[in-house]
Amino acid sequence: MRAMVLRRQGEPLRLEERELPPPGPGQVAIAIAACGVCRTDLHVVDGDLAGPKLPLVPGHEIVGRVAALGTGVTGLAPGDRVGVPWLGHTCGHCRYCRAGSENLCDAPGFTGYTLDGGYAEGCIADAAYVFRLPDDVGDGPPDGQSDAELAPLLCAGLIGHRSLKMAGEAERLGLYGFGAAAHIVAQVARWEGRRVFAFTRPGDAAAQGFARRLGAEWAGGSDQTPPAELDAAIIFAPVGALVPVALSAVRKGGTVVCAGIHMSDIPAFPYSILWGERRLCSVANLTRADAEEFLALAPRAGVRTEIETFPLAQANLALDRLRAGQLTGAAVLVP
Ligand SMILES: [Zn+2]
Ligand SMILES: [Zn+2]
Known about the structure:
This protein is an alpha/beta fold. Helices cover 23% and strands 26% of the residues. The chain contains nine helices and 17 strands. Strands 3, 4, 5, 8, 9, 16 and 17 form a seven-stranded mixed beta sheet that branches. Strands 12-11-10-13-14-15 form a six-stranded parallel beta sheet, with helices on both faces. Helix 4 crosses helix 5 (180-191) and helix 4 (156-166) crosses helix 8 (288-300). The protein binds zinc ion (ZN) (2 copies). Residues 90-91, 94, 96-97, 105-107 line the site of one zinc ion (ZN). One zinc ion (ZN) binds at residues 90-91, 94, 96-97, 105-107.
């Protein structure tokens, strides 16, 4: 099979021919139909995140079909349309796994980081962390979405969902950074009856227009003051300077959620903007329960993703476009 492979952090991915091993016990082989490009992939490739498996096939927003089952796999059959997210494995016995917080597992496996991922024509995944998706021919809705359209749900959607839960009952929700995750969260938030305020890079009229089109009642630069005090804000941009900005925009008792896996350093800020029982927290990874919840909720909320597809061999171009902030919505690789 063809795969885009990271040999060393800081270098472009290389197109290589690889052998896909047969699935081991509890694993499935998946024929990949689409894989989304997430900002975390950039952090892995660029070296912001230390210690990836090398060589590595990045990518953790995988949609494909089950090609073969390892021994002991139940609940999946060859041909099933499935998704593979970032959480690829957990130990099952650390204090976090036992407490229902497997997203914080002490010995996790992450797809496209410590396990080979989806920038390829096929992958092997632990069947317990693979999710069935509505079939595009069988049990899917008449407006069934393509494999490429579903791919961003597997991380942008899931992490966005966990972040939105962390934001609590906020009616006035600020979203800092309007990319793949925010464009999904905005749709869910509107469906839940929340008011959305979108913050983009200053002067990014295209992203602001995109946010308004998806239901934001206000969109502006992150240097602008929103027309209403926010109940909560989610920061998707990997920019630490946005933390004091967002804290200053939320009301007393409000919450600021940092949704990214990596962020530049947070500048010092006066205690007064945290005072008033404002809360600052991060979201790390996902649990399988998050995935089940969100994959059931997305069709009910009528979530539609806006994507730009790239051939697998152009993964470096897709990453460059994401790095430069030149994408509207989400990039998806199609082998
Ligand atoms: Zn664990
Ligand atoms: Zn991701």
